[in-house]
Amino acid sequence: MRILLAEDDKKLNESLTTQLLSKGFDVDTCYDGEEALYYAEQNIHDVILLDRMLPHMEGSIVLTKLRQQGISIPIILITALGTLNDKVTGLNLGADDYLVKPFAFEELLARIQCVTRRSLIINQADLPGYCDIQFNEATNTLTGPGGSCSCSKREGAMLDVLIKNGGQTLSRNMLLLKIWGPDSNVEEGNIDNYIYFVRRRLKAVGSCLKLRTIRGIGYCLMEE
Predict the structure, then answer these.
(1) Secondary structure (DSSP) of 181-218
(2) pLDDT for the residue numbered 120
(3) Residue 220 DSSP one-character state
(4) Residue 182 φ then ψ, to 5°
(5) Per CATH, domain 128-223 is 1.10.10.10
(6) What does DSSP say about strands 218-223 and 169-171: parallel, antiparallel, or unpaired?
(7) pTM higher than the cut 0.90
């Protein structure tokens, strides 16, 4: 799971990043509102932790702009403003949850699990799989007509993106952003390795789907 953390308090930012990484999350961090908006507009994160009072652009404005663009990533507002009116305002702007500082890391984890679980339920209701396969993000398990197989974290991330965009051609750059994040120095050759791995997984579960190379553009998951 990839998290965007927008928090201008350097010590808190670093502390939360360290703790989230220790729990197995991928974390992108930033310290001001303009940068937060840029990262969030890439639409590659599973949840955004957004400080309400950020320099250059307030978190509430970032939130408003994202919702106006139709970006529905779960967003948890993190703020020292804890009155009932502050909470109601934040939720009405489109936040999925509201966490008041100071807070325990365990509570933040519970909030993250809650908003992402709601999002997953919605996604599964709309798109439980594609064609003859299903992917369980919680267990990184791919299931098809011929059985199931476990996938690595990166394989799972790629399968998740491909299944949610089944039949659509995805560029190599888009896959890089979605799977490795905007700040990653990963080489493009790594995509080729994981494309090979995913093709093996599809074959292993007996799927009729093929991951086709669209020359000069990218890849498309489509029926044989």
Answers:
(1) -TT----THHHHHHHHHHHHHHHHTT-SEEEEEETTTE
(2) 52
(3) E
(4) -70, -20
(5) yes
(6) antiparallel
(7) no
